[in-house]
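Tokens as discussed.
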């Protein structure tokens, strides 16, 4: 195993741990996006550009975007509910 592969695997492991340790869902989505970028680098090192491209689009862009929009809509809906009840 070459040193670049070892460093990449260690970074991916650290990124996965960072995702798991996040408590706030919005922050977790952002860290998950960075983790997906680390996976893209790992896939490129192992010469799998098709998998890397798919992971780039889905893991780094589409999934975090959909998740953030959903979180914002739920938070906005929660604020509307508290405004109506007066609490």
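Sequence:
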């Amino acid at each position: 195993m070459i040193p670049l592969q070892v460093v990449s695997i260690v970074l991916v492991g650290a990124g996965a741990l960072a995702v798991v340790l996040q408590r706030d869902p919005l922050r977790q989505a952002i860290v998950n996006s960075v983790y997906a970028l680390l996976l893209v680098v790992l896939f490129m090192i192992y010469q799998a550009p098709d998998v890397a491209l798919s992971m780039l689009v889905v893991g780094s862009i589409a999934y975090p975007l959909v998740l953030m929009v959903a979180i914002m809509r739920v938070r906005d809906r929660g604020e509307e509910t508290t405004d109506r009840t007066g609490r």
